[in-house]
Fold:
Amino acid sequence: MSRLLGEEEYTAFQQALAGRPHVGLRVNTLKIAPDALAERVPFVMEPVPWCPAGFRVVDGSRPGKHPYHAAGLYYLQEPSAMAPAEILAPQPGERVLDLAAAPGGKTTHLAALMQGEGLLIANDVQPKRVHEMTNNLDRWGATHLAVLAEQPRRLADRLGAFFDRVLVDAPCSGEGMFRKDAAARRTWTPNHVARCARIQEGILRHAARLVRPGGYLLYSTCTFAPEEDEGTIGRFLARHPDFAVEPIPPQYGFASAEPAWANAPEEVRGAVRLWPHRLPGEGHFVALLRRAEDAEVPSSPPRLRPRPPRGELLAHYKAFVEATLHEEPAPRDRLAVFGNRLYALPEGLPDLKGLKVERFGWWLGTFKTNRFEPSHALALALTQDDFLETVDFAADDEATLAYLRRQPIAHPGPDGWVVVTVDGFPLGWARRVQGVLKSRAPRWLSRI
Ligand code: SAM
Structure:
């Protein structure tokens, strides 16, 4: 870096790396407006210039511990990581794929920008990380989202050029996270950089096949290594003449990419580097590519056909809805049963036969013997007004913490399902039995 940046800039870079990492949060605009959230929380925050829903937390508070985090009102994310989804700019109603999505930071951002409309597929190859991601996404409360755990090659073979926008937030050597993440420092070697560059090339090759003609592919890393940034994009362009770089304006302190650092073509200058010494965030690289309108592509896969619940299952579901909600949460013709789970399918979901699917859409609940049990995802995607009864606690009420810790809370009323809310925002289900609320907060929630 000293050679590439020159002595003066390298000193500033080094000083930035010796400083503290930024703490950031991005507001869930599916649930609350950024200003409204900022007024309610007890932390001091500064806006992130490139992300209207993003804030830096500047007073040392720990927003991850606040119950609003458990209610999905925001996602913890450092400011630079808020740039890729803003730059990809997905529109409501589009088909969008987040190909290396776990633990779901950028997926939550894409979901909010799409205002819950269209189809968003989040995918990752590591099962444990996919699991963590589904927890994060359940909390976020997006209803137009499916989750897969597939190899990019198999996705491209099955779905073809199906998506308007594809985001590849690639596995990388993580140099941009050095001041935030000690593991990134420990695992770094020159070989690791070379290995990451090879993996990125493979992922991008299949990602490209998933983009419709005229659609967009966004590539991002959190590393400074030119081999993985300008180098990976340069090699990609050489093999994919149907893609071109869409220049990203170098505003907000974003710096133009440096093609000469990796023997890449001049057009790669249209990508941007986010440097920790030039803006309030960690290190990132972002390139936006567009596929030619006249690219030849295979035909799209058929739609997945809904499999609505029938007979006894439908009766259990209807009984649950009548006892807890003002109306059915999703149109009947979107309902689908897979195994013992009930989902509401997102608009235009393709047939996913043969692929590893974690969520076919909005998970509404599970059929157990003789009853329907609601999911956490159902409560977190609805609002207080959707439920017949909610039990509301203030954020600083001890009962809120007791609920999240799955402790019983005395509360008179008839037996049955109720939703616990914090300042009016759903936190999760409880079962009231003989005047005691038994918390059904997921176990992972008490750990966040
Ligand atoms: N986008 C995520 C977010 O904002 O929370 C972070 C993604 S992380 C930088 C890179 C991800 O790539 C990891 O979760 C890793 O499991 C995944 N990954 C690694 N190899 C992959 C591959 N061949 N295909 C798809 N994902 C892969």
About this structure: The chain has a mean pLDDT of 96. Residues 138 and 377 are 4 Å apart (CA to CA).
